Amino acid sequence: MKILALDSSGLVASVAVVEDGITIAEYTVNYKKTHSQTLLPMLDEVRQMTELDLSTVDAIAIAAGPGSFTGLRIGSATAKGLGFSLNIPIIPVPTVDALAYNVYGSNALICPIMDARRNQVYTGLYEFRKEKVDNTEYQLCILEKQCAVDIADIVKRINTIGREVIFLGDAVAVYGNKITELIKVPYSCAPASCNRQRAACVAALGACLYRQGIWQTAAEHAPEYLRLSQAEREKKEQAQKANIQQTQSTQNNSIQYQIREIRHEDLEQVTALEEACFSMPWRYKDFEDTITNPTRFYFVAVADGDQTLKPGSILGGCMITAIAGEGDISNVAVHEPYRRNHIGEALLAHLLTFGVQQCGIAAFTLEVRSKNSAARRLYEKVGFVEEGIRPHYYDKPNDDAVIMWKRITPL
After folding, report:
1. DSSP 208-249
2. pLDDT (tens digit per residue) in 137-168
């Protein structure tokens, strides 16, 4: 069986081809480049070096999460695209399980830890067992299913078990001192050769899962974020504080709306919004591509329960492109009759919260026409400051672009 494996769940990007238990090729990079820049070129390099005919691949194993929100989306989109075009199954491999597979055959307790920020780690507890006395193969046994917890909580659990443990993963460097302070059992850290994500491990564990009948179609596959439900709750709380789902008053009519991510059925309305607000608007196809682009997120303000508007009517929208820890905000638009009702401000508040919580963005930037004083006041209100000018950037009419930034102070 020939498996193509991908892992873009963290800083590491990794691609491998494994056939019948033999690693034909593996390309792994742990460097500060975005996976949107690296993953497909790495895959193409592996294909060329091994003269791989993609039509001979039997399945795609993907590190399905948890991990970086953006990284998982990039990996998932790549796997789904290949799965659809090749008509082959996708094997969703839990990221933390695959990381534990790096120390195959160890007698110690295994604790992978990935930095999930806010003093939390993505982690789990594992051991390898031989199910039969004469069995030459070890089985990965899950003692604690992958989860997002405080680093102190997982160390406490290890102390309760009372066994020697091996730590591995990018969070070892982040929480090494904390571990030393709290741990009460013998422990060690995996060496550089096996302490980060590797696509070959994703493939090896993926082959085991495939034999158990664990696989998906390309249409079925989606990343497992683990903290998605928590993030949704946090977003809801933020939405309530910012009055994102609120009642506004304009022309003596009550406008109720909610903010959500764009859907395919919104495309015609969003295109019309763009044409009504900009002299050089995006087209239908641009927004259609955005829906499947793992680095772009477009949100709309949608009428909800208003007597004067048809439910589902789009009042405004805005987009963020998330790359390398920065967010580029664009396409901020509100239909003229509904302006001065704080819809644009609510959209931006939602977008900023989403960028920080879901994409790990630390700095936001945007460009605005120098003569658009209303938009500039709005951006200043939500914390953006002017940091530069691009002369004659805009056409129809000619205008300078004011470059504005909002930088987030780490918690």
Report:
1. HHHHTT--B-TTT-----SSHHHHHHHHHHHHHHTTSSEEEE
2. 899 999 999 998 889 999 999 999 999 999 99
